[in-house]
Amino acid sequence: MKAGLLNVVRSAHAFSQSPIVPGVQEYKGDFRLNGVPARRGDLVSPGDIASTGPDSSAIIIVGQHAFMLRANSRVEFFPVYFEKEGVVSGVLKVATGAMLSVFGHTQKTEITTPLATVGIRGTGCYIDSSPERTYVCVCYGRADLGSAPTGRFLETVETSSHDLPRFIYPSGAPKLIVSAPVIDHGDDELRLLESLVHRIPAFDEIDSPHTQRY
Description:
Elements: H1 2-8, H2 12-16, E1 23-28, E2 31-33, E3 36-37, E4 49-52, E5 57-62, E6 65-69, E7 74-84, E8 87-102, E9 109-112, E10 116-120, E11 124-129, E12 134-147, E13 153-159, E14 166-168, E15 177-179, H3 187-196, E16 199-200, E17 212-213
Parallel strand pairs: 8-9, 16-17
Antiparallel strand pairs: 1-5, 2-3, 2-4, 4-7, 5-6, 6-8, 7-8, 8-11, 9-10, 10-12, 11-12, 12-13, 12-14, 14-15
């Protein structure tokens, strides 16, 4: 998707002079909204289900939040939500596959998988959901991690640069949560997503008068 990504990268100054553009920014391969082939510019509303096929991907903006879906993913965007001062908060359900996300100001937002809950506190994170385990990397920011099947709180992580990735396992596993390496996502992708919503990642030290840092 690199060629497509280059099409949506612009300078921070240019972004600061125009409003954030919601909806589908870019996609590759078989990308669908609610089962229908999607197009660039399509809006993603609360309750919509986005899915990607093999060797497919997509970039989506909802409010102040930006998302990058990997291949073979299925994500339900904010089936439970509330909106305050134009900011959407609530629940995102990653049924399967992987998603990189960056969030603006949000209240009580949670990413769920069949195995894990991730309580978002204004952060960037990467989720990869499979039947065997859920991978969670809080790339920067703070999040509360829990076990979805048991409802147990597992850990609060606060990081500045991919410091505490975790695997979360099904109930009955010897350990529900263990340390993990950094896999399948990188800083340039986070910079791209943040630039689309007029921000820079927390790990970047370069200050800009035209962007915000979370």
